[in-house]
Design brief:
Helix content: 40-55%
Largest sheet: 5 strands, parallel
CATH architecture of the largest domain: 3-Layer(aba) Sandwich
Strand content: 15-25%
CATH topology of the largest domain: Rossmann fold
Strand order of the largest sheet: 2-1-3-4-5
Number of domains: 2
CATH superfamily of the largest domain: Response regulator
Distance between the termini: 45 Å
């Protein structure tokens, strides 16, 4: 983990220093910092980051807009860290490609815990996946090794976290998982998980798979219990 390269974007110098000190204590030493969207975008163009911490209230561009621009360049996990704490802001951040959302004021250890969880899940993901594994469900196929999802012969653009969630479902078909379990298994942390993070990612996956969001047949919601992935070939 100490080799992970992290980008921290925030216009408050005090927060940048706080996060850098905290990350250094947790053996994260490859840290780049930016106080504007312009500088952050340049850094993303020039570097391959493993994690991006992104504020929303930047002086030149909204963090939401910046996230959209970054997603055209990188699939690196993006964690929003913002004082904007409404459900709408969280829905927006996760909906445009964010992988997680932390509200200010925050406990610095919470940030490092989420970073470690994401990196840990990525390593487990890479180690456990056999070469050339392909999940073929008829009209859509998923190849974890190359991180490609094809629906009706069309390549679908997905974030890293969406692909991790799909991978988890593919490996565990017809099993029921609560939102808390999904957050723990996919996001790698059972302490700070938020239900909306899971539900938003599931909603996005449904749309990309062509599943009926009002009456889903593939990623089914069992009210009050959890979610179950039913492979399309088994859908009646």
């Amino acid at each position: 983990m100490d080799h992970a390269k992290i980008l921290v974007v925030d216009d408050e110098v005090g927060i940048l220093k706080l996060l850098e000190i905290t990350l250094n204590k947790e053996n994260f030493f490859h840290i780049e910092k930016a106080t504007t969207g312009k500088d952050a975008l340049q850094l993303v163009n020039e570097n391959a980051f493993d994690i991006i911490l992104l504020d929303i209230m930047l002086p030149d561009i909204s963090g939401f807009e910046l996230c959209t621009e970054m997603r055209r360049i990188t699939d690196a996990p993006i964690i929003f860290v913002s004082s904007r704490s409404t459900d709408f802001d969280k829905l927006t951040g996760l909906g445009i490609g964010g992988d997680d959302y932390i509200t200010k004021p925050f406990n610095p250890l919470e940030v490092t815990a989420r970073i470690k969880a994401i990196l840990r899940r990525q390593k487990m993901y890479e180690r456990s996946e056999k070469k050339n594994t392909i999940y073929d469900f008829g009209y859509f196929t998923f190849q974890p090794e190359s991180a490609t999802l094809t629906v009706n012969n069309k390549l679908i653009d997905c974030t890293a976290k969406e692909l991790e969630l799909l991978h988890f479902f593919c490996k565990n078909p017809n099993r029921i998982f609560t939102t808390a379990q999904l957050y723990e298994f996919v996001w790698g942390n059972d302490v700070y998980g938020e239900e909306k993070t899971v539900t938003i990612h599931i909603s996005k996956l449904r749309k990309k798979l062509g599943d009926d969001t009002r009456n889903p047949k593939i990623i089914v919601n069992l009210r009050g219990i959890g979610y179950k992935f039913i492979p399309p070939k088994e859908v009646v």
